[in-house]
């Protein structure tokens, strides 16, 4: 295909992706109330605990157009998530023709593995959101109220979901690096103590809370996933050595001549 053909194909796929996001955003606007209830449920679940400690906390929206801006922002993010199968496929459909057969197989396998890992990490973040907010709001001194704007609350949730979702991709990255020969299982085993320390440092910096419990909720699954990916790398290296031994020529063997 000539260059202009590639550009026209890219334009058409971008248009389809944008249309899919627009449709997803409209759907999110229609179901805005259930989406908002889902997002505010972690905050509402800790309200009785805060009142028992004498903390008057309230979720508010500021500004004349704050409510509209808040609704559009939530709808756009949800629309991007809802339409992700469409625009992700448009990206892959544009790139896949340039890949070889084995590259296509690995690309599809990595995509099929990465999506569930990210969703699992985001789901874990949603489960610990009440604990994280309880800790942070708990620093409010006695006699002082706590007003949380909708924008701050939404940004906090998005950050938590993204951090946990990206952290869950550790085994995918390690296996990919091992597959392309960048690192071996022996190197991963030797670097294990430093990698575990780095995981805990990352968890301490990435989580917006200051309590060790939330850090452990992120660091422990990341460590387990890393150890699991190390096992996969070891099995891959063992298979690679076995194949290399089978294809290696002995001293008394002749290599086949090309026709």
TrEMBL record:
Cellular compartments per GO CC: TAT protein transport complex
Domain of life: Bacteria
Alphabetized InterPro entries for the sequence: TatC
Location in or out of the cell: Cell membrane; Membrane
Biological processes per GO annotation: intracellular protein transmembrane transport; protein transport by the Tat complex
Keywords associated with the record: Cell membrane, Membrane, Protein transport, Translocation, Transmembrane, Transmembrane helix, Transport
Topological type in the membrane: Multi-pass membrane protein
Residues spanning the membrane: 14-32, 74-95, 107-129, 156-177, 189-207, 213-233
Chief localisation class: membrane
Annotated Pfam families: TatC (PF00902)
Subunit structure: The Tat system comprises two distinct complexes: a TatABC complex, containing multiple copies of TatA, TatB and TatC subunits, and a separate TatA complex, containing only TatA subunits. Substrates initially bind to the TatABC complex, which probably triggers association of the separate TatA complex to form the active translocon.
UniProt similarity note: Belongs to the TatC family.
HAMAP family: TatC
Job description of the protein: Part of the twin-arginine translocation (Tat) system that transports large folded proteins containing a characteristic twin-arginine motif in their signal peptide across membranes. Together with TatB, TatC is part of a receptor directly interacting with Tat signal peptides.
Identification of the protein by name: Sec-independent protein translocase protein TatC
Lineage of source species: Bacteria, Bacillati, Actinomycetota, Actinomycetes, Propionibacteriales
């Amino acid at each position: 295909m000539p260059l202009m053909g590639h550009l026209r194909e890219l334009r058409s796929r971008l248009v389809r992706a944008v249309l899919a996001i627009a449709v997803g955003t409209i759907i999110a606007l229609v179901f805005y109330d259930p989406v908002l209830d889902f997002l505010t449920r972690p905050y509402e679940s800790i309200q009785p605990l805060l009142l028992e400690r004498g903390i008057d906390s309230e979720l508010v929206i500021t500004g004349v157009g704050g409510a509209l801006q808040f609704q559009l922002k939530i709808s756009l993010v949800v629309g991007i998530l809802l339409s992700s199968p469409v625009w992700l496929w448009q990206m892959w459909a544009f790139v896949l023709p340039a890949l070889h057969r084995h590259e296509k197989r690995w690309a599809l396998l990595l995509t099929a593995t990465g999506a569930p890992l990210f969703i699992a990490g985001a789901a874990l973040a949603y489960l610990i959101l009440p604990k994280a907010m309880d800790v942070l709001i708990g620093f409010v001194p006695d006699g002082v109220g706590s007003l949380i704007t909708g924008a701050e609350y939404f940004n906090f949730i998005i950050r938590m979901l993204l951090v946990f979702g990206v952290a869950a991709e550790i085994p995918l990255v390690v296996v990919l690096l091992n597959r392309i020969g960048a690192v071996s299982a022996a190197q991963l085993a030797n670097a294990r103590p430093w990698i575990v320390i780095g995981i805990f440092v990352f968890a301490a910096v990435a989580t917006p809370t200051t309590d060790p419990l939330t850090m452990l909720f992120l660091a422990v699954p990341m460590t387990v996933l890393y150890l699991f990916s190390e096992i996969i790398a070891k099995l891959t290296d063992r298979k690679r050595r076995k194949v290399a031994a089978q294809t290696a020529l002995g001293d008394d063997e002749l290599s086949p001549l090309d026709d």
